[in-house]
Amino acid sequence: MSDKVNQYDAQMVAELDTNLAHYAKIIHQTTGKDVASVPSAGAAGGLGAAFLAFLSTELKSGIDIVLDAVDLERHLEGADLLITGEGRIDSQSLHGKAPIGIAKRAKKYQCAVFVIAGSVEGGIGSIHEQGIDRVFSVVSETISLAEALEQPFESLALVSSNVAKQWLKEQ
Question: 62-170 adopts what CATH topology?
Answer without folding.
Answer: Rossmann fold (3.40.50)
